[in-house]
Amino acid sequence: NKRTKIKQLLATGEAGQTVTVMGWVRTFRNNQFIALNDGSTNNNLQVVATLGSFDDALLKRLTTGASVKVTGEIVASVGKGQTLEVKANTIEILGDSDAEKYPLQPKKHSLEFLREKAHLRFRTNTFGSVFRVRHSLAFAVHEFFNRKGFVYLHTPVITASDAEGAGEMFRVTTLPLENLPKTEDGAIDFKEDFFGKSANLTVSGQLEGELGAMAFSDIYTFGPTFRAENSNTTRHLAEFWMIEPEVAFNDLEDNMNLAEEFIKYLIQYVMDHNREDLSFLAQRLAEEEKQLPQDKRSELGLIEKLEFVLNNDFERLTYTEAIEILKESNHNKKKKFQYPVEGWGVDLQSEHERYLVEKHFKKPVILTNYPKEIKAFYMRQNDDGKTVAAMDILAPGIGEIVGGSQREERLDKLEQRMKEMHIPAEELSWYLDTRRFGTVPHAGFGLGFERMVLFVTGMTNIRDVIAFARTPNNCEF
Ligand code: ATP
Ligand code: MG
Ligand code: MG
Ligand code: MG
Question: Is 394 in the pocket of ligand 1 (CB under 6 A)?
Answer without folding.
Answer: no
